[in-house]
Amino acid sequence: MAVTSMDDVTESKLLLAEYDRLKEEQKTRIGFRDNLLYFTLAAVTAVVAITVHSGQSRLLLSAPAICLILGWTYLVNDEKISAIGYYVRDQLGPRLGELSSARGTVFGWEIYHRNVTGRSMRKRLQTAVDLFTYLILPMVCTTAFWCSPAARPLLVLTSLVQTLALAVLGWQFLRRTER
């Protein structure tokens, strides 16, 4: 790797390097977030299959725990993905625009894709998929547990705590939809 002199380092180059790193992080986080959805569906399917095979309905209570952990991880990654977009749009782009005396918006895609026809409908549909995966599926498992003969007081209490936590998670998904 060649060593550059400090004369070669400009604010524009630093900001472009930051942009490249941020977009790489955003791309990685998007892939991870999207795979979490598939992994969650596979994990809940496995829990249901093991429960049916073993006849031990208390195993259904692992589905809410799985969905809580993976759902929260999904939300955290989604928040970081959005934060990178906001930062590029509101801070990095305008700063590079000033430095380069650009006539138009720098990194125009960051604004353009947010105004595409049908975006709000796609956001609502994605929220529905997220709520189905991280809230409804585990609640179906919890309800099935409640209807089973394995519903003992301590396990029911555990399931009620999980239900409360799932409600908080669902509220977080709905809260994030507004953006």
Tell me briefly what this model is.
Helix content is 78%, strand content 0%. By secondary structure, it is mainly α.
Order of helices and strands: HHHHH
> Mean pLDDT, as a whole number?
91
Query: In one word, what is the shape?
Result: elongated
Unreliable stretches covering 5 or more consecutive residues: none
Structure, described:
This protein has 179 residues and is mainly α. Helices cover 78% and strands 0% of the residues. It contains 5 helices and no strands. It is elongated.
What are the defining features of this structure?
78% helix; 179 residues; mainly alpha; single chain; 0% strand
List the helices and strands and how they pair.
Blueprint lengths: L10 H44 L7 H39 L8 H4 L6 H28 L6 H25 L2
